[in-house]
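Final report, closing paragraph on structural work. Over the funding period we assembled a curated collection of sequence-structure pairs, and we close with a single example.
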Amino acid sequence: QVRLVESGGGLVQPGGSLRLSCAASGSKIRPNAMGWYRQAPGLERELVASSTGCDITKYAESVKGRFTISRANAGKTVFLQMNSLKPEDTALYYCNAVWTTFDIWGQGTQVTVSS
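Its predicted structure, as stored:
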């Protein structure tokens, strides 16, 4: 069974940093793409950052210059380094992995930015 396991969320003060991790298990084939989405209360889920198999990255305008997505473990693990965090970054962050015929979501990890 293919699944994603996320970690790294938590409470941080404005201006602080967090690093999210997401590891895919149960598949011998690396995902074509992996990414991070977030959903704040009352808002729709939005793309934060994504990375394709060709290491092409994409970021939401609101996080450019502050967040960095990277992959490791033969492309089966994705990280999201979040710096200069703002209260508006508070949300439930979800990892997503895409293979040719299916995609799956992680369980979500909470990020709260507050003083």
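The chain has no helices and eleven strands. Residues 71 and 78 are 4 Å apart (CA to CA). We thank the funder for supporting this effort.
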